[in-house]
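Whether sequence alone determines local backbone shape is best considered at the level of individual chains. For completeness, the protein is quoted in full, as a sequence line and a line of structure tokens:
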Amino acid sequence: MCAKSSRAVASLLVVLLVLVGQGEATLAQQRQRAKTTTSPKKSKAQLERERRANLRRIRETSRILEQTQKQKQASLGQLNALKEKLTVQKSVIKTISSELQYIESDVRQTATQVQQTQQSLAQLKAEYARLIYASSKTANSYNRIMFLFAADSFNQLMLRLRYIRQYSEVRQKQAAQIASTQQHLSHQLSGLTVKKQEKSSMLTTQVAESRNLLTLKTQQDQVVTKLSQQEEGLRRELAERQQAVSRLDNLIADRVREEIARAARVARANAARKAAARAAAARESTAGTTPRRPTETPNRANAGTAAAPAAEAPAEEAPAERTDRVTLTPETAVLSSSFADNRGRLLWPVGRGFISQRFGRHAHPVLKNVIVENRGVDIQTSAGEPVRAIFDGKVLTVASIAGMNNIVMIQHGEYFTVYAKLRSVSVSEGQQVRMRQPIGTVYTSAEGTSELQFQVWRNSSNLNPENWLSRNR
């Protein structure tokens, strides 16, 4: 009976160790899968930031739209604000859809992890049940004592005693694994509930934003219909704008030519001044030599050689006059290079708003078969919005043109920025300005549209401002 009891306890310990090892391996594999299948939180956070930024843009555009809607008559400014809001609204819905994909992926992964943990827990409980059942057969004190005293030697006795202790420890470890797995399962179930609630909330938001999109489309169609009924007025407005643009183009061209000529004159004057200074220095040097005696007869052969130093030094050649670009001084060259280095990172001329009409040639938003050309970009903003210099420079021109209101032109070396449609101006010609310095306020039309015309030039070449302005406002 002793031998039989000994073999039963030994077999039980072996089975127990194997079962515990399998349970640990299963739980470790399940937790490793949970780590490797986690969604990239960084990308999800970026989507959330993008959605918040778009919602902020929608709020700004809504304020601008409200100002244009105060007038009963539909206007292009109102249509442009609706288009911008519609575009941003689509971006919001697209971002929400991307976020939903992440949430749905998280829900699926968490559900899979819950299922795997439940299977692991069931396996651990089954193994523990088999262990308890097997141990119950040899659990009484008599069998343990007989198992110990049946040892052939003292060393074997100590070894069997160690087995019994390991048996107790393994049971405790198995029970701890079950408790840990149950706790892990409870945490996963809680996370799954949270993710499902987040998904439900995001779906509700998506439905609401989709309804807003449909409302905006309806409003846009209504405004287009009203504007289509005002074709004669739109054509008259377009003709007036084209005349104003032509006057502005002429003003810019004249100021650029004048600045090119002025810089060339300054360069020539500086070159002549330096040449005169060198000639004077050469004459002083010649006058300081020892004169010949009156009785000495100059050697004809050496006369030409002696007269050479006294001859007037050749004047420095004036720089060739350029008619296509500004002649830069060392200071303006540094400023011009700094402006060019900040391409794509320049400050916006207004703190808030959107581009209502882009650079170049494009179709009229209402009139069919009509192409309009824009030398810069129109930035629609709020009434009374301050206009600021986008970079350090010098105010070259302050003028007023019918259809463009007040205009400020700032020079940045060989680059020029033009700010038109200003209600008021707070700078003067020749004044040095710093980046972010206010130069005026935007003009608001009778239709309630507050719009800034902004242009960028390099000498006589017209540039696309969108390539120069920062994407972040």
About this structure: DSSP finds eight helices and twelve strands in the chain. The chain has two domains: 2-228, 230-279+326-473. Residues 12-20, 36-41, 294-318 have pLDDT under 50 and may be disordered. The domain at 2-228 is CATH 1.20.1270 (Substrate Binding Domain Of Dnak; Chain:A; Domain 2).
